[in-house]
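RECORD TYPE: inverse folding
INPUT: structure tokens
STRUCTURE:
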């Protein structure tokens, strides 16, 4: 039985929109990033170096709790962003940019390693591949004040890390969607194409 589908992608790639649409279409329970209740997100974008560790620990705990809920409830769930993205992309990127100390990064990495011994990867990972111009356009469209200060070089570095991670992803089924050339938000035909791709993956999981 397929219980855990996850949508991965950079900031502004369209994860939340796709998660919502697929949850409605398939009748899946939806789990979203805890953005509105995140006490560190606004501060992080104002001072990344000061708040990077706090933010990553908050996300790590939040997504670990989601995974425990998915396992306990034993029903199909689609999740907006995975715990693996935090550890493979966001935290090491902050460390390499000098925005997280060696001590904090090692502490975070050790905690993530311990957690991975208790969890399983998604049954299907959907990766939204988007160029920086697409990310910027969609970030501006949704108009979150705290995202106004996101730098282009930051998005570019994240994109590079996403590609490295996806190219080496071996944990389970993977579906890559070109977010630059598809508009599932406003075009029902494009959403239908995505659903067809997902159906072909899901049928292979039974």
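DESIGNED SEQUENCE:
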């Amino acid at each position: 039985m397929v219980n855990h589908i996850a949508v991965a992608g950079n900031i502004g790639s369209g994860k939340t929109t796709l998660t919502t649409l697929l949850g409605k279409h398939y009748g899946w329970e939806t789990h979203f990033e805890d953005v509105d209740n995140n006490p560190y997100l606004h501060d992080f974008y104002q001072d990344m170096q000061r708040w990077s560790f706090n933010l990553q620990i908050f996300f790590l705990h939040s997504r670990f709790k989601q995974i425990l809920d998915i396992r306990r409830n034993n029903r199909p769930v689609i999740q907006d962003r995975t715990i693996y993205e935090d550890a493979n992309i966001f935290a090491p990127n902050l460390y390499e940019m000098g925005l997280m100390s060696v001590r904090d990064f090692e502490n975070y990495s050790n905690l993530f390693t311990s957690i991975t011994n208790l969890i399983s990867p998604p049954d299907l990972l959907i990766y939204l591949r988007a160029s920086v111009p697409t990310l910027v356009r969609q970030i501006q469209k949704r108009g979150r004040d705290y995202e106004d200060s996101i730098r282009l070089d930051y998005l570019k570095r994240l994109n590079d890390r996403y590609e490295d991670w996806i190219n080496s992803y071996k944990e389970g089924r993977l579906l890559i969607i070109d977010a630059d050339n598809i508009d599932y938000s406003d075009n029902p035909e494009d959403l239908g194409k995505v659903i067809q791709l997902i159906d072909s993956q899901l049928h292979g999981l039974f």
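NOTES: The mean pLDDT is 91.
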